[in-house]
Amino acid sequence: MSIELPPVKELGAEIMSRAEALGRFSEGGPGVTRRFCTKEHRAAIDLIGGWMREAGMSATLDASGNLVGRYEGTKPGLPALMMGSHQDTVLSGGRYDGMLGIIAPISCVAGLNKRGVRLPHAIEIVAFGDEEGVRFQTTLLGSRAIAGTFDKSVLARKDSDGVTMEQAMRDFGLAPEKISTVARRKDQVLAFAEIHIEQGPVLESEGLAVGVVTAIAGCTRMAVRIAGMAGHAGTVPMTQRHDALAAAAEMVLAVEHTCGAEPGIVGTVGQIAAEPGAINVIPGAVRFSVDARAPENAKRKAVVERIKSAIQDIAERRGVEARIETTLDAKGSPCTPWMMDQFQEAVEAEGIEPLRLFSGAGHDAMALADLTDIGMLFVRCERGISHNPAEAITAADAGIGARVLLRFIENFRQPGN
Ligand SMILES: [Zn+2]
């Protein structure tokens, strides 16, 4: 289909000014802080709802706090291609993480509406209420509500002021008892597409504005406890020590080596604590964390087993005891091949080399994967920085991202059609 597309410059300028406008709704401090069911959340969805209506969509707040915009197809009530991302941020986050995935599709629909284009399916754009999980320490609230996987027990969780999620939702005018009604049936949603900043440096290093996401990585987290023998730093000979921290140091490097041995796997030890923690005492006990991620579940499970056995080998050789507890085992969400192909076509049509890359960070799309087929498009961000006030994209990349998305939307077809 040949399409008359709005210029990149026009789209980019609109997206940047809207991201800036939304970024002003912040609780204070550096960057953007916008948590679930706060007055900043309200202000953001009021503004977004106005943009949706201006683009020819209806806009409604669902019982779980998602703002849903809908653009009907050739006749009312058709199943929808769903798009969207989260309106909330981390503490002192940036303006684009999440917001780009709401603003860019609205600009695309505005383009369709202006030309009077109606598609053989509806379009829905969702501004998810909470993805980051900052206020109640539990993530993906909005997307899980729509996917029908919302866990009602989290309603009892309290924020730092002691307010339960249930109360916060009621105060916001929502209906927590009706969350199950937010869930969609599979036949109502054709697919879910999310455009998001990369939050990593790959596209920048490849010199590309956008990339096609292959999967959202699964993640295994472990808590490792090493028990050695504390002793006097001056009197115990080096040959007779069971130094828990020296053992842990070797284990940290083993995590790095194991995960670095093949592409597509990342592993991090981000926390470590030694006891008793005195300058003149051989460390007797150490606790450290391991976070390992890979796009393919089999690969992740294999690497986790290799990490565990490396830790046990080192412990045995050094005469310390290692206990490994798995604290999180979240499966990865592969993007659907036909969705990747259609995004790739759209990227190529824009004259861009279609790089495929995986996401090391979690996204709303991974919750939607329980309901429907998913696809994601990444937009380059400066130095890969995100979750930081310095998060930045260029207007040109925002415009290119929106053009690719618009091509994807207009050519969208279900497999077999
Ligand atoms: Zn995000």
Key structural traits:
single chain; 417 residues; alpha+beta; Aminopeptidase; Alpha-Beta Plaits; 2 domains; nine-stranded mixed sheet; five-stranded antiparallel sheet; 11 helices; 16 strands; elongated; binds zinc ion
Would you kindly provide a brief summary of this structure?
It is elongated and about 85 Å long. The longest helix is centred in the last third of the chain and has 22 residues, at about 295-320.
Q: Can you characterise this structure?
A:
The chain has 417 residues and is an alpha+beta fold. It folds into 2 domains: 288 residues, Zn peptidases (Aminopeptidase, 3-Layer(aba) Sandwich), CATH 3.40.630; 113 residues, Alpha-Beta Plaits (2-Layer Sandwich), CATH 3.30.70. It has 11 helices and 16 strands. Strands 1, 2, 3, 4, 5, 6, 14, 15 and 16 form a 9-stranded mixed sheet that branches. Strands 7, 9, 10, 12 and 13 form a 5-stranded antiparallel sheet that branches. A two-stranded antiparallel ribbon has the order 8-11. Strand 1 and strand 2 form a beta hairpin. The chain is elongated, with a radius of gyration of 24 Å. It starts with 7 loop residues before the first helix and ends in a 7-residue tail after the last helix. The structure holds zinc ion. The site of zinc ion (ZN) has 6 residues, from loops.
Structural class: alpha+beta
How large is the count of helical segments? 11
Rg, Cα atoms, Å: 24 Å
Bound molecules: zinc ion
CATH architecture of the largest domain: 3-Layer(aba) Sandwich
Instruction: Determine the N-to-C terminus distance.
Output: 15 Å
Average pLDDT: 96
- Might you state the CATH topology name of the largest domain? Aminopeptidase
How would you describe the shape?
elongated
Report the β-strand fraction as a percent range: 15-25%
Domain module count: 2
Helix percent band: 25-40%
CATH class type of the largest domain = Alpha Beta
| Element string (H = helix, E = strand) | HHEEEHEHHEHEEEHEEEEHEEHEHEH
CATH superfamily of the largest domain: Zn peptidases
How many DSSP E strands? 16
Described by strand count, sense and barrel closure, the largest sheet is: 9 strands, mixed
